């Protein structure tokens, strides 16, 4: 049996040309793998056929939308994951699920190599290859654009010479990656960080400046997972999709950031993730209601580390598994309802309730009948401030 390579296939120019390019450069048969993580666009069956027409010996299509939502987006939501406090890891979350299927298909179909269409300049090359290394350390990873000098102009010439079924349209000035969790846009005029984004950039969100009356939505959570919207049961995938629509109509989730890439350079990125941002805002507020103070404080510190690990391609690392165990344990009481008001690009929590709430009205109220014993406060403050008092005496001596 001939040696084989499994290519993560998008259906675009680079990966379509990459099928023949890989075969020519390595002598291996190429299997195309297209993974649906909610990116929309072309029918996946059309993409499958295009891979075969471009020379793949087999073409595999995987509908991973529910898997992506259940096993990757929900852990990110439980972690309130925002890289650099703003980016909800749109692309970083999709790479490990694609890598898992790359490793699986390679094993099932007898391949010894996997390939992807990343350049040598971005984060995704690291994410794909680190994930594959953790899942199937015997596999070799290669990247035609990076390793075999497949530039765009060479790809166009190759496609024309080999009559590949790829329609050449005017090149989009932007590099775009999208899935059900959000959409990432870079390059073009955005490479100058002084240039403001324009409306043509956006697809998932409406202009918040042109927004109309506010909408209210109530999200029900069970152990950190959204299970209903306005009282109607939803799956995780449905929750994300519905919030993309509802929050996107109000321009929620637009992010313009200068981002620290793993490879050591700064990159200007524009994201839109309406569902992700709205759900994280709701989930975080429910945690404020249901988690005890020290757990909440420690979890907030860990969330930044969790986001950095995932951003840097270490989804399958031992440290992340240990963090997941802690985060999962914190979610056992994160059940209840959060009411959000959506308007003008903002998702604002206006109400929260839970049977697991740690909010005690009789302790919190300032009205007559409160149960908080204020007479204990004086002694508490004296003990609390004692180390400061003792050190201050030394400093002043």
From TrEMBL:
Binding positions (L-citrulline) = 87, 123, 127, 175, 259, 271
Which Pfam families is this protein grouped with?
Arginosuc_syn_C (PF20979), Arginosuc_synth (PF00764)
Gene3D superfamilies in the record: Argininosuccinate synthetase, chain A, domain 2, HUPs, Single helix bin
Keywords assigned: Amino-acid biosynthesis, Arginine biosynthesis, ATP-binding, Cytoplasm, Ligase, Nucleotide-binding
Q: Can you cite a GO biological process for this protein?
A: urea cycle
Q: What InterPro entries would the database entry show?
A: Arginosuc_syn_C, Arginosuc_syn_N, Arginosuc_synth, Arginosuc_synth_CS, Arginosuc_synth_type_1_subfam, AS_cat/multimer_dom_body, Rossmann-like_a/b/a_fold
Q: Please state the protein's primary subcellular location.
A: cytoplasm
Does the record bear Ion transport in its keywords? Answer: no
Q: Which residues form the Arginosuccinate synthase-like N-terminal domain?
A: 4-165
Question: Where ATP is bound, by residue?
Answer: 8-16, 117
Instruction: Name the reaction it catalyses.
Output: L-citrulline + L-aspartate + ATP = 2-(N(omega)-L-arginino)succinate + AMP + diphosphate + H(+)
Q: Does the keyword ATP-binding apply?
A: yes
Protein's cellular compartments: Cytoplasm
* Any one GO CC term of the record: cytoplasm
Q: Which EC number(s) does the record attach to this protein?
A: 6.3.4.5
- Residues holding L-aspartate: 119, 123-124
Write out the pathway annotation from the protein's UniProt entry: Amino-acid biosynthesis; L-arginine biosynthesis; L-arginine from L-ornithine and carbamoyl phosphate: step 2/3
What's this protein's family per the entry?
Belongs to the argininosuccinate synthase family. Type 1 subfamily.
Q: How does it assemble?
A: Homotetramer.
* Protein name per Swiss-Prot or TrEMBL: Argininosuccinate synthase
């Amino acid at each position: 049996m001939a040696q084989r390579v499994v290519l993560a296939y998008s259906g675009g120019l680079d990966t379509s040309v990459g099928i023949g390019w890989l075969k020519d450069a390595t002598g291996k048969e190429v299997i195309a793998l297209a993974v649906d993580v909610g990116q929309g666009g072309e029918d996946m069956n059309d993409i499958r056929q295009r891979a075969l027409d471009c020379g793949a010996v087999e073409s595999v299509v995987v509908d991973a939308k529910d898997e992506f939502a259940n096993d990757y987006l929900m852990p990110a939501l439980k972690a309130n994951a925002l890289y650099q406090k703003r980016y909800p890891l749109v692309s970083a979350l999709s790479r490990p699920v694609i890598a898992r299927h790359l490793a699986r298909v390679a094993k099932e179909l007898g391949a010894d190599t996997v390939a992807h269409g990343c350049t040598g300049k971005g984060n995704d090359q690291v994410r794909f290859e680190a994930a594959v290394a953790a899942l199937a350390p015997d596999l070799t990873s290669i990247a035609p654009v990076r390793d075999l000098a497949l530039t765009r102009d060479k790809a166009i010439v190759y496609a024309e010479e080999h009559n590949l079924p790829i329609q050449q349209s005017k090149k989009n000035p932007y590099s775009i990656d999208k899935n059900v969790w959000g959409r990432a846009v870079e390059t073009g005029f955005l490479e100058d960080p002084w240039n403001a984004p324009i409306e043509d950039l956006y697809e998932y969100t409406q202009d918040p400046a042109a927004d109309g009356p506010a909408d209210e939505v109530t999200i029900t959570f069970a152990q950190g997972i959204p299970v209903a919207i306005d009282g109607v049961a939803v799956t995780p995938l449905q929750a994300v999709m519905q919030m993309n629509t509802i929050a996107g109509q109000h321009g929620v989730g637009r992010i313009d950031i200068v981002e620290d890439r793993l490879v050591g350079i700064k990159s200007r990125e524009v994201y839109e993730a309406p569902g992700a941002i709205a759900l994280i805002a709701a989930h975080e507020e429910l945690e404020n209601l249901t988690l005890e103070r020290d757990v909440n404080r420690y979890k907030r510190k860990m969330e930044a580390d969790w986001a950095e690990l995932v951003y840097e391609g270490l989804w399958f690392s031992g440290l992340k598994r240990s963090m997941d165990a802690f985060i999962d344990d914190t979610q056992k009481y994160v059940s209840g309802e959060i009411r959000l008001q959506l308007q003008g690009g903002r998702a604002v929590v206006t109400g929260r309730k839970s049977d697991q709430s740690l909010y005690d009205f009789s302790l919190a109220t300032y009205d007559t009948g409160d149960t908080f014993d204020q007479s204990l406060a004086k002694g508490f403050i004296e003990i609390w401030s004692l180390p400061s008092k003792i050190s201050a005496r030394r400093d002043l001596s």
